Amino acid sequence: MPPFTPCFGFSLPLLITCFLTCPWIELVTASAAPLYNHRSCEAAVQEWSNKEKLALNKELKLVQPGSRKILELLFFLHIPRTGGRTYHQCFLKNLYSPNDRCPRSYDKLRLDLRQPSCKLLSSHDDMSILSKIPSRASVVTNLRNPVNRVLSTYEFSVEVAARFLRLKSINSSRSPLPLAKSPSQLVSTLTIWPWKYLVPFMQHDIFTRRDARLEGKVNWPQSTNTTYDAPTITMPLTEFIHHPVAHELVHNGATFQVAGLTNNSCNEDAVMVRKCSSLYPKLGHQVLDVAKRRLDYMLFVGLTEKHQESATIFFSLVADQAQVQSKAMQEILGQNASVPVQEKDPRLLLFAAYKSCLASLRSSHAIRRAATLQLISPVRFSQEERKRIPSAVLEEIVSLNNLDMELHEHAKKLFAKQQRHFTTSTDPQVKQDQTVLSMFLILSISMILLILGLLVALRVRKRVGNDWLPFWLRRLLLLQVHEKL
Ligand SMILES: *[C@@H]1O[C@H](CO)[C@@H](O)[C@H](O)[C@H]1NC(C)=O
Ligand SMILES: *[C@@H]1O[C@H](CO)[C@@H](O)[C@H](O)[C@H]1NC(C)=O
Ligand SMILES: *[C@@H]1O[C@H](CO)[C@@H](O)[C@H](O)[C@H]1NC(C)=O
Ligand SMILES: *[C@@H]1O[C@H](CO)[C@@H](O)[C@H](O)[C@H]1NC(C)=O
């Protein structure tokens, strides 16, 4: 079996590129200071942004303006913690047969290009992945309020890390994590960016705190706001948001992912451009501009806050075009008794299947979370607990995510526009009824006009015999004939 191909495969040209750039990359990471001065940063960001705009213009030439058509590949750019996993699990998967889905799009860190003709890619990869794919792609994504996204990232990291407390094989912060070969969910999260980094980081932190607690080494002060500030058990929220790992993987993550500049990017310039844009606010805004333009030209941009409305629009966009797989449909019908079988419209069926799948995913997540949080009691994540986070901390998150805040505002405007475009078609049944009604109206009006026209012609003809054309009209026609001669 051939190994999966990461963005940077071991081909000769790439080896040469690496030969030329690797010493430079090492220089950047080793003694970075002089390379990130304002002048070189300005030049690097400018060069990157020019390249991006050029690429975007080239892509756009191939697309009809305002087109809602899905191109060869549908790329679901899944920004972590925006609720996109349910779109993939409960909806997109039903639209494409396994052969048409890009292999391992979620299970490996990077895209497997063994099947270059695949039609559906859902992953945490950033925009730069498209430069590695020959097919022309339509991109859809989901954005979320950055504060909620950061809180959710923190909670999920702690939750997944805490699951290791149950494993007997790990009894201290020095124990190695289990190998990522096992098919269990616990381990598969460890192969997906950014959890690949965030979970082991949190796991190590939780076990270090537990070691210290067990050995009675430290005496942390007791805090009243125990969930987001429980230093005896987990890294407090305030510590997390200021940690270099959060700067690298979490803050402004949506902007970087849409711009193709994450820590997981295929673009060799990403490290420098990302760092520069964090150092100099003006350069950050240059990156934001590119990200906004990228959003503008996506097939669809949803909002996690408006999950129901987003799903509806997304469905009417995609379900009409992607061939609904009969096999997938059979599965839906076979498995889910809650889906009303009498529904003949595949879109209604898909929507019903989506809702039941969503409900069951949500309830199993909730059960799992509750079981895990018992291991780190009194930490308990909930909407109620979130309300107790001091507003100063929330403001800090806002300022650490200033680019994402603006991108989210931009996405809201785009969403409102899309919503206006789709208002009449929220319910496929309504849409169908409306189409039938308007076709009936057009048909009856044209029939009436036709009958009226015939009646008038007959009457005129009766009155004036064969010379029923008005004199001036005959004159005009004759004149034209003369002119032509
Ligand atoms: C942790 O487990 C290892 C073997 O898995 C064992 O050798 C070690 O003694 C254990 N440590 C503690 C503190 O229980
Ligand atoms: C916890 O409460 C203290 C005082 O009430 C406050 O200073 C601190 O910022 C809080 N921390 C968090 C993470 O909520
Ligand atoms: C991505 O971030 C993680 C965590 O900070 C780091 O270990 C890793 O080396 C980074 N990868 C790249 C390509 O920068
Ligand atoms: C059908 O329902 C089950 C649970 O009842 C759920 O796990 C599954 O994902 C659903 N399948 C589809 C295709 O919606």
UniProtKB/TrEMBL annotation:
- Membrane-spanning parts: 436-458
Which UniProt key words apply to this protein?
A: Glycoprotein, Membrane, Signal, Transferase, Transmembrane, Transmembrane helix
- Gene Ontology CC entries for this record: membrane
**Is the keyword Transmembrane assigned to this protein?**
yes
Task: Give the molecular function GO annotations.
Answer: heparan sulfate 6-sulfotransferase activity
Leader sequence segment? 1-30
Q: Membrane topology for this entry?
A: Single-pass membrane protein
A biological process term (GO) from this entry: heparan sulfate proteoglycan biosynthetic process
Q: Is Transferase one of the keywords?
A: yes
Q: Where does the UniProt annotation locate this protein?
A: Membrane
Which PANTHER family does this UniProt record tie to the protein? HEPARAN SULFATE 6-O-SULFOTRANSFERASE 3, HEPARAN-SULFATE 6-O-SULFOTRANSFERASE
What is the protein's name according to its record? Sulfotransferase
